[in-house]
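Note to self: keep these together.
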Amino acid sequence: MDEEHAGQQSSDRIEKEVLLKAPVSRVWRALTDYQEFGEWFRVNLDGPFIAGQKTSGKILHPGYEHLRLEVDVERLEPESYFSYHWHPYAVDQLVDYSHEEPTLVEFSLSAQEGGTLLRVVESGFERIPASRRDEAYRMNSGGWAGQMDNIGRYLDSALA
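Structure:
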């Protein structure tokens, strides 16, 4: 897997991309099939990704098993674009994050020689309360770098 965790950074958006050695159709399935997504993202989702609907599930990542992930699926454009809203780094069980505006997570896929370029952009951090904005940004920036590694390893093992 050739990886490039590049992208412009600002205080409002995180951008990461990775070149995956798999065809677009395979990357799309790993990204949008909720069970495959759960394998590499480390979450046990309750149901599929459907535009206009929410899905949630138990986080399986070590140290975060007490939390649930909830996403509100915005759009699914087959083999090219997938987006959802969520509350970034919502890790304090004593805090009600529902009053905050969620960020938007966008995945874009494009065929490249030798595989698929997967790009993730998370935007809207400037609308998060200042008291937790910097930490949410920092944690998600590192988190997305890790998730790009995770999907690459997942696809490499699936193709082996």
